[in-house]
Every structure is written in C-alpha cells, then in structure tokens.
Amino acid sequence: MIQKLRRSTTLLSVTALTLGMVSTGLLASNAEASTSTPGVTAKTITIGASVPLSGVAASYAPVSAAANAVFKYVNAHGGVNGRTIKYIRLDDCYDLAAYGLGCTAGASTTTLSQNKVLVAQDHVFATVGSLGTAAEDSVLSYLKQNGVPQLFVASGSRDWNQPSIYPGTFGFQTSYVAESKIFARYINSHFAGQTVGFIGQNDDFGADGYMGLTDGGVSISSANDLSYNAADAISGSTSDIQQDVATLQANKAQVVVLDSVPGFTSGILTVAHMLGYSPQWIISSVGSDPTLVNNVGEAGAISLDYFPAPTNKSDPWVPWVRKVLLADKADFPTFTASSVLTGNEFYGAGYAVAFVEALKAEGKTVTRAGFLKSLKSTTFSTPAITPLKYSSSNHQGLLGGVIATVAPNGTSAPTLVVEPNTTVFTTTNTKSSPIKVSTKLAIALIPSWLK
Predict the structure, then answer these.
(1) Which of 209-241 are b and which e, b meaning 16 or more Cβ less than 10 Å from the residue's Cβ?
(2) What secondary structure letter does DSSP report for 314?
(3) What is the mean pLDDT of the chain?
C-alpha cells in the first residue's frame, strides 16, 4: 500500500513535476492578509502543503495531486458553506534540494523556507497533507509559533500524535508501531515457531516498526535484526541490502518483515531472487504498493491496507475517487477509466475528504480554534476502511487496517493489493494497548453533498 514517508530519502523513480504557484501565492497574499483569520475570506479558504513535486521523492507527488483533485471537484459543486478551497502546493524536494537529485526548486530550497512562503506570503489557514517525517519535523515549532494548524501529515511517525505539545498537529495514516503490532499478531497466529528476520530503514520508520513487532510478542534474534542506510538512496549504493538478504538466507529466516520504502523493497526482492531465497515477505504498507515496487517477486507478499482494493465493487468510494481523478485533467492527464487506482491516490483523496468534512462541520464562521475543535468532534466518512476519529488524546488518525496480499499478475509485476477477508485490526502505539478485532469493514457512505 502506499506512501508513508520517512525520515530520509527514498530509492524511487524520479518524475520531474513543476507547478506554477507563484501567481496563486501572490493573489492569496493580497486577498487574505488583512482578515482576522489568515487564509479565510467570505468566498475562499486558502490552505497549503510542502511536498516533493520533483527530485528523488517525486513519485509521491500523486498524493497531493489526488487531494487537489478532490478540492477541485468540491469547488465545482459549490464549495463548502459557500467557500471554495485554494490548495497551494510548494515543492520542497523532500527537504533534500541541496543534494540536487533532479530537484527543480533550487538548491537553497528547504521545507522550512517553503513553509515560510506559505505562512508569511500566502497566509494559509493551515498546512494540509505535507509530506515526510524529517521534513515535517523541521517545521513543527515554526508552525506552532505562528498558530498554523499542521493537518494530516503524510507519515506514520508518532511525532504527529503529541497533543499536549503540538495541539495543532494531526497525522492521518496508521502509525508504524500500530501496523507492526498487527503484523506481530499475524505472525504469531500463522507462522508460530518459524524464524523471523527484519530489514528496516535506519531511522524512525524502521525503529518504530521493529518496536511494534517486539511489543506484539515477536522474537527476532540480534543476528536477524538488520537495517539499510536510508542515505544510500543519494549515492545509489545497495551494499546494505545485498549483505542483509544474504545474512537472512544464511540464518534460514523463514519470515522476513520489511520496513522499507518502495525502491528498497524492490531492491531487496531482486537480490533475494538472485540468491534463490524466497521467505514469506511481510511488507509495511509504506513500501508495498505494487505499482511503485514494480517487482514480480512481490507476488504473495503480505501487507496492511487501510483503503479499499481498487477492484472492490461493493465500496462506493472506488468509483467516486475514479470519477474525481477523471475530472482533473490538469493533475491526471493520462488517467483513464481503465487505470489502476493506487494507494497514493486513495491516500490523498482520503485526507482531502476529511478536510472538507471538518470544514463543513465548522459552519459559515471559520476560525483555526473552531476548526480544530470540529476536527476532534467530527465522525468522518472517508475512503478509509477503518474509522477516522480524532480526539483530545488521539491525533494519530487511522488506527489499523486489514491484512492484505499482493496479488500475482502472471509473469509480470503485480499491480493490485487485495484483502482476502474482512477482518479489521485496530490498536494504538502503547505497548499494553490490545489489538481489537472486527469482522466488518467500516465502509462509510459518501455524504450526499459530496456526490
């Protein structure tokens, strides 16, 4: 599944994307600078995001593009409480512009510098869907000091769930810890007694994932607890993963959990194939989206999903998201009625729907304090298949998902993740928090005003 972004760079395919946001930003600055609530006028609300639109992490660009498509669709159908939504996306190159790597924003561009543009020039009401753990950590204090809500951060880090310190910061996806606790339950139920290995990115992504496995009762020997250097994406080195895979093969690990981004997932699978090594792969939702991994060796791998399979004919959100993307020819010029919906697209559409629902609940008078209150009191109807509900103590967002399998696609690389059943697992980051099990997907109806 998709996209959940880390404390460092990723070995991803680079697609150079640029958006002309300068004129939009100037208009927003002139129109909204004098209002009592920044970004809000009688007819508009301006929000923004710092996201990688070019450079090494540009393959994550469809996340914010899908959100933008939702906002355009809502605007075309009358907006929210009489207001249209302006969504300004600034390219921060994953906070790695200084390394080059195909970044078109300029070497001096940082996530902080782009957020200063959003806040001081564009006067955004909030940032919505900004991406990356390290990138967004770098602006936590700046946004708090300026009273700007930091909403639906695209990352599974626990950093967004600190309501006592950062009351205006909210995550969206299931955390890395919670996901791995669910994997631990699955391993103990289906692979009891088998040797488990782990390869994780050497930052909070891998550390949190490993914590969840051990909190869930999975025993991994130190010899089988391995990591790759996330910075290797800059140099292109794959020496870490070659050594790690060979080690797990020599140690006869039968089940291998990967907390890896898509490019490294593909690299690990390729090395394993070359070595004739075929354990049961269990891959974090961050690095399992088959459209990004694009590796035939992923077939049969297990992952976690919190959005519907694109082939799920019983879920009304599948055709709705498809309709929204088809209508946005600017952001999705090559998307067709037969295109496979990806986790990236569901993710962006999911947080965009959550934003417009909270905005609608806020009513005609919009303030930052009122919006955050609405955010914590709204019961959302989103494309996610687990309930989205915030509170004073939970700013994480989604709390679980379903165990899913990457479907084979003949001799070519898989393109779909499918849920084999409807068992939903939810939990929190706390070690003592139990895993709750439901046998019914939380398929939410699309609100009539969104149709």
Answers:
(1) bbbbbbbbebebeeebbbbbbbebbbeeebebb
(2) T
(3) 89
